[in-house]
Write a structure and sequence with these properties.
Shape: rod-shaped
Order of helices and strands: HHHHHHHHHHHHHEEHH
Radius of gyration: 39 Å
Strand content: under 5%
Oligomer: single chain
Length: 278
């Protein structure tokens, strides 16, 4: 047990510090500057020896003084905002894997609680989330058009043929309904007017002889799917579509089957073959 004189001295020292705070602070600052390396080493060695003890003490202190510590942290963050952000970035770069592992462990422990939280947040902020997502989506599309084109090309190579065969009948029904609607009629009218204008400006006219010659070029076989075609039931196709600057010149005309002509629409030959025939 410590003696009475020792306890009296400690009390006297505490009172003296309270009366001479500014002097003590300045003295400690000077001492820290002189012996910085030595003090840091000392603290490190002590922390490594008593790691678990220190953690428990910190947790207890935080539980007792929760509101106080939060206010202190907020005040410090507002004063040193740039420094805090810089340090946080630095830490994330160094400890990427560690952060991921911690987040994953926390998710596994609190899976149901997190789901409930997310669901409640979604229900309370449904409209704002939808509008915000819409805004960000349009911005992203504007800024990443090159990336989107590359992605679409890759996706079409893999899935275009499968999707067409799956939803063939559904798309036919949907297009019929759409063409009969007011919006569909206006769009089709506009499309046909544009096509007529392009054909008027076209130098070459279509004639019966040209159509016959285009059929004779194929030798009774569709150039795309190689199925047989006949004079009574073949479709005339523009190799380079009129919408993309194609003409009625004989070199740009070819006979093909009904299905290939509808599938090709306004695609170029290389794109059409890649999408439907590999």
């Amino acid at each position: 047990m410590p003696s009475k004189n020792y306890l009296e001295r400690i009390e006297y020292a505490k009172k003296w510090r309270l009366n001479h705070l500014s002097y003590c602070k300045n003295w400690f600052k000077k001492y820290y500057k002189k012996n910085k390396k030595f003090l840091l080493k000392k603290h490190k060695t002590y922390y490594l020896k008593n790691k678990e003890k220190m953690k428990k003490l910190r947790q207890l202190h935080y539980i007792k003084n929760k509101e106080k510590t939060k206010k202190k942290a907020q005040v410090y963050y507002l004063k040193n905002k740039e420094r805090c952000l810089f340090c946080a970035k630095k830490y994330r770069k160094k400890n990427k894997l560690l952060i991921k592992q911690k987040a994953h462990l926390y998710y596994l422990k609190n899976k149901l609680l997190l789901k409930k939280k997310h669901h409640m947040y979604y229900l309370n902020n449904k409209k704002w989330l939808y509008e915000n997502h819409k805004r960000n989506m349009f911005k992203w599309i504007k800024n990443n058009q090159k990336h989107l084109k590359k992605y679409r090309k890759k996706y079409n190579k893999k899935h275009y043929k499968k999707h067409y065969e799956k939803y063939k009948n559904f798309m036919k029904k949907y297009l019929k309904k759409w063409r009969q609607s007011e919006n569909g009629k206006l769009i089709m009218k506009n499309h046909n007017q544009k096509r007529r204008k392009l054909l008027k400006n076209n130098k070459y006219d279509l004639s019966v002889d040209k159509i016959k010659k285009a059929f004779l070029k194929t030798e009774g076989k569709c150039p795309y799917c190689f199925s047989p075609i006949f004079e009574d039931s073949f479709h005339l196709d523009h190799i380079k579509p009129i919408s993309k600057g194609g003409t009625n010149h004989l070199n740009n005309l070819i006979a093909c089957c009904n299905s290939c002509n509808h599938k090709k629409y306004n695609l170029l030959v290389r794109d059409f073959k890649r999408n439907f025939y590999g």
